[in-house]
Structure formats: C-alpha cells, structure tokens
C-alpha cells in the first residue's frame, strides 16, 4: 500500500520536475534579468503596458509550460534585445570594411527580430491548441476503460487507477495533474478535478470531467452517462471515418490520373514525337540532338519529379487521416 502511494506521488510530481528546455531558459532569464528589471518603476510600467498579457497565464498552463507571464515575456524581451543589439554591433564593425554587407546584416537582424518575436509570442497558443487536439483525439481510447471501471467503482477509485490505462501523453498529463492536486496539494477529489480542468486545453475533456463531478455529487449513475457519451462518440467517429474514406477515394483518383497515367502518357508521347522528328529530319544532326534532349527530359522527370511527387502524396494521405488514428503511445523506456 505504501509503495503504491509513493508511486502515485512520484508520477504526479513528474508534472513539475520534467522541465522542458524553454522552461529552463525562461526561468534562467527571469532569475538573472527579469526580477531586477521589474524593480525599475519606468521599465515596469512600459513592460506591463506594452508586453505583458494576463491571458497568457491560462494559455501557458494549457500549453503545459510551468511559467508565469512575467517570466515568459521577460525572456522574449531580453532575447530580442540581445539579438538586435548583436546585429547592430556586428553591422557597425562590418561597416568600416564592407558597408553594403553591414547594411544587409542590419536588415537581416531586424527581420530576424520580427520573425522570432512573432514565433515566440504565438508559441504557447499553438502548443495549447495542439495539446487540446491530442487530448480530444485520446478521449475515444479512455472512455471504454472508464465505462468498464464505473460499473463497480466510484469516481475517486476510477481516477486513482485510470492512469495505468493511459498510453497517450497529453491526456495522461491531465489526469496526472488531477492526482497532483489531491495527492500533493491536499485538495479533495472534486476540487482537484475542477482545478485541473480550468487549465485543460480540451473543452471536451473538461466538460466531461465536470459532468462526472456533478453526477457523482448528486448520486447519479456514472456508468449510464459514460455509456451514452461513448455511443455519441462512436457515431461521431463513424461519420468521420465515412468522410475520411470519401476523401481517400478522391485522392486515389488524383493519384491514378496524375502519378500513374500522366507520366506514362508523357513518356509514350515523348517517344512518338522523337521518332517523328528523327524520321522527318532523316538523320540530321540537329534533329538528333533534339531527340536526345527529349529522352533526357523524360529521364529527369522519372528520376526526380516522380519520387518527390510520391513522397508528397504519401505525406498528404498520412495527414488526411483523423488525428486519433495518428497518435503515438508513450515510450516507457
């Protein structure tokens, strides 16, 4: 029993201990520069008026980044400042010998600052949306286990053991966050679920877990709710699969026309035209060079265009599949 509790506590703490590279970088920048800069009244006013965005407190949490907005935006500000300063310094030094290159370097630096700034500002938003999509795609694999468990167990017991059934990273993180609230922070189960779902990037999972809390508190039947939820989800999946099959049929027709028939038609027509040129020219040297050019162009198309086209088509087919069929399980190693 004690070993099981220790194992649960260790798994829950992984949420806080496994920091990503960007989290370590932001913590470092804030510790070295951020705190000192925010103590300056003028800088603090400019920072909170022009850089700070309070909405990012929830966005960063949804992106599973253990950062406060001050840490993140100070890191962006300092990174862009260093990058711009470096480009200005090198441009000034280079201007004494190569003024044109110095000007080009300066404009590249300004452009780089703009690109990096836009990327870093939108990175948590994109990450949160990506996580939400992955959590939504994982729900069909979680619901059957929860339905089976709910037939005999309470919601508290389901939350305790469901983590063992989860093999997809993003939804596992959300359930580990629930465990963290009640095993480390000392919240009761209902408060843990509601607190964890406030920062959940998936509205579907958040609504489902809040419904389970409401049903559990009111003495309702969790099994009936999950059974109905699973039936509706299966209908949605069947509709998605039907649409996906229709899309694949269209892609297969495109594949046959563009990547099978067209190269064959081009090769045959090119050979016929070359034979006509050779016959009409009666061995003329210019015509001979023209036929050689036609053969070379056919070879170039077959060796370079077709492999690239096949790879692009396979990539298109892969990403046209529903996300739940492309999820990769967690590698325990």
In short:
By secondary structure, the protein is mainly α. It has three domains: 2-133, no CATH class; 135-232, no CATH class; 239-325. It is 83% helix and 0% strand.
Task: Provide an overview of this structure.
By secondary structure, the protein is mostly helical. The chain contains 12 helices and no strands. It has helices at 2-17, 21-39, 41-50, 56-62, 69-95, 99-150, 155-162, 169-183, 189-198, 203-218, 222-281, 285-320. Helix 1 (2-17) crosses helix 8 (169-183), helix 8 crosses helix 9 and helix 11 packs antiparallel against helix 12. It is flat, with a radius of gyration of 30 Å. Residues 1-9 and 285-291 have low confidence and may be disordered.
CA radius of gyration is 30 Å
Distance between the termini: 25 Å
Anisotropy-based shape: flat
Unreliable spans are 1-9, 285-291
């Amino acid at each position: 029993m004690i070993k099981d509790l220790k194992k649960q506590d260790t798994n829950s703490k992984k949420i806080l201990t496994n920091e990503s590279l960007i989290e370590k970088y932001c913590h470092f920048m804030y510790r070295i520069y951020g705190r000192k800069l925010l103590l300056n009244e003028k800088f603090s006013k400019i920072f909170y008026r022009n850089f700070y965005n309070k909405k990012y407190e929830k966005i960063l949490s949804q992106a599973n980044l253990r950062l406060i907005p001050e840490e993140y935006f100070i890191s962006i500000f300092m990174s862009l400042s260093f990058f711009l300063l470096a480009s200005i310094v090198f441009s000034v030094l280079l201007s004494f010998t190569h003024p044109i290159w110095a000007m080009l370097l300066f404009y590249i630096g300004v452009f780089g600052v703009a690109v990096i700034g836009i990327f870093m500002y939108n990175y948590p938003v994109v990450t949160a949306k990506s996580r939400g999509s992955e959590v939504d795609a994982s729900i069909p694999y979680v619901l059957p286990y929860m339905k089976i468990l709910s037939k005999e167990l309470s919601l508290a017991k389901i939350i305790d053991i469901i983590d063992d059934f989860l093999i997809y990273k993003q939804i596992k993180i959300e359930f580990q966050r629930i465990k963290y609230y009640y095993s480390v922070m000392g919240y009761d189960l209902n408060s843990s679920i509601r607190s964890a779902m406030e920062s959940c990037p998936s509205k579907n999972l958040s609504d489902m877990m809040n419904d389970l809390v409401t049903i559990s508190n009111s003495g309702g039947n969790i099994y009936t709710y999950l059974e109905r939820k699973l039936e509706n989800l299966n209908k949605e999946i069947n509709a998605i699969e039907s649409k996906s099959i229709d899309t694949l049929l269209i892609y297969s027709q495109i594949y046959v026309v563009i990547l099978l028939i067209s190269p064959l038609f081009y090769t045959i027509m090119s050979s016929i035209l070359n034979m006509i040129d050779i016959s009409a020219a009666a061995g003329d040297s210019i015509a001979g060079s023209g036929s050689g050019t036609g053969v070379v162009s056919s070879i170039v198309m077959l060796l370079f265009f077709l492999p690239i086209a096949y790879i692009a088509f396979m990539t298109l087919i892969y990403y046209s599949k529903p996300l739940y069929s492309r999820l990769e399980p967690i590698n325990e190693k």
